[in-house]
Every structure is written in structure tokens, then in C-alpha cells.
Amino acid sequence: xxxxxxxxxxxxxxxxAEACERKKQILSAIVRPTSKTDELxxxxxxxxxxxxxxxxxxxxxxxxxDVVVHCxxxxxxxxxxxxxxxxxxxxxxVLLEACKGQAISRFILMSSLGVYSMKHHHGxxxxxxxxxxxxxxYSQTKVEAEQLAMHYYKEWGVPVVILRPGFVYxxxxxxxxxxxxxxxxxxxxxxxGGGEAALNTIFxxxxxxxxxxxxxxxxxVGQAYNLTDGEYVSKRKFxxxxxxxxxxxxxxxxxxxxxxxxxxxxxxxxxxxxxAKKAPLFNFPRxxxxxxxxxxxxxxxxxxxxxxxxxxxxxxIGETMDWYKKNPFPEIPV
Length: 334
Hints:
- This protein is of the alpha/beta class.
- The protein has a domain at 2-172 and 201-230 and 295-310: NAD(P)-binding Rossmann-like Domain (Rossmann fold, 3-Layer(aba) Sandwich).
- The protein has helices at residues 11-22, 38-42, 55-63, 81-99, 137-156, 176-185, 204-216, 235-245, 257-274, 284-291, 299-305, 313-326, and strands at 2-6, 26-31, 46-49, 67-70, 106-110, 121-124, 160-165, 167-169, 201-203, 224-227, 294-296.
- The protein has a 7-stranded parallel sheet, sandwiched between helices.
- α4 links the parallel β4 and β5.
- The longest helix has 20 residues, at 137-156.
């Protein structure tokens, strides 16, 4: 089968691309002209160079594809919504339009557990209603992207499967993990509410397994699936393990969640009044990540897809931290 991956030079997309090569699948990717493609070229990928907004290029790329895995997205926790919508919704629309009437067997949309409300979750499953409005552009446009994809499934039969991973970690993440490490170095991390709340972690190799299971499962079409490692890992355990492995100090401050919420609200309002281009240290996406209980059920993925996370936390975090020790990165301001 021929896999077309968007975002194949990114963290998750690159791991899926490597899995395609291991599984002897034909690999193609839409890549920006400025993207570094050395690794994809080593994998023998067929590259379509251009922007996802280019309908002609996208149509050409989709024409020979059996499976489309859409990982490309604008990520972040700050900024106006329109740049997020342009990438996460409108470029998706171009891709879905190109898939109409084509004989693709599966369209995998990489979404996020961030589509759920900012509140405590205890075993929440896919029947949990999504909020109509999120306070940040990334989460809001991920909801809109899911709605758009399901529209194309219902109206034109595009074989959409929505995957909702939690916090994806593993080797080659240059976005979130480096910020956590930098925050630990600079004593900028706290545990609002005490740090014992669940973190919705998923190791990147477990997520890759779920992608291929979703491709193979006919029952998955038209469905959304929560995905985590299926293992309770608290904020304190996750971050503390990183601190231990990297020989960094542990966070010690444990402000009550109500106080953290108030400080965050004030920080965001002040940043908006100033027209800040950079996210304030305290913002709601970060508070959701570090303060709220994020426990989601993966039973549906286990029942429908046969998903069984094969890499446990200790093995996964060990492999991840070994990679960061061998691959130093510039310190990221937080």
C-alpha cells in the first residue's frame, strides 16, 4: 500500500514514516520547500514539495495514495486563532477535497485529547461532548478539524478515522519535552493541586502502532478514538522521572489549583492587554497540562482496534531521556 503522510518531517510524522519503511509500504509525503528532508530521502520517500494550501499539488499527491495520514498542524499555546485555523482547518479542507471520489482506503486524522474541556477527567470516553469554544487557538481548531473531517465522511464517504492521542513523548520531540527540561533547569515548574493528578501520556511508538491498527480495521471508519499508554502516570511521577534521568532539581512548589487558576487568568489578561506575541509563563493550556486530572478511557480503541500499548512508561521514558542526553538542544525560554 502507498501511504501519504503530511507532517512527515515532524515528531510524530517522522516516526510513522520510519514504520512505513519497516513494514515495506510505499511512502510518500507532502513537504514544505524549506523542510529538511534528508531522513525521508534515506527512507526512499516520494516527495511532493509545496504547501498544503496548494490544491493542485495536494490532488496530485493523493491521486496515487491508498492511505492518507494527516499529521501536519500548527501547534502552540498562544496567539490569535486565524493562523491556527488556516493550517489546522483550511489546509485540512484542501486535503479532504482532494480525497473526494478517490479510492483511498483510510484517512487518518491526527487530533488530540486537547479537544476535551479544561476540567478534571476521570475515565472520560468518546461520548464526552466537545466544547463549542476553547480559549486557545490550537484546541479550538482541533475541534473544528474533527467536525470538518466527519462532515466529509458523512457527506462524501471519505473513510475518516480520528485519533486523539494525549501528550505524545519520545525521541525527537523538539517542542514540549525541551521546554519541560528547560523549565526544570530554571526552577520554573510547579505542581498546582499537588502533582498527583493523572497525565494523559502516550509514547510515540504506541501511537504509531495505533495508526496502523486503524488502517487495518474496517470498523474504525467514521469513529474517533482516545489514545494513551493506558497506564496511570501522575504529573509528579512523569516530571520527577525526567528530573532524575537528567539530574535536575525536582519542583517543590504545590500551589492550590484555585490560586493557580486565578494567577493564570490574570497573567493571560495582562498579556492580551499588552498584545504579547509570546505566551505568558502562566497560561491555561499549560495549567490544563500540569494541573488537571487527565484520565481518559482507551477501552474503545482496545475493543475496536485491538490496541494494546506495548511499551510501558519506565521503558519509554528511559529511551526518551537517553535520546535527549545524546542529542543536546538549545535551551528554550519558558
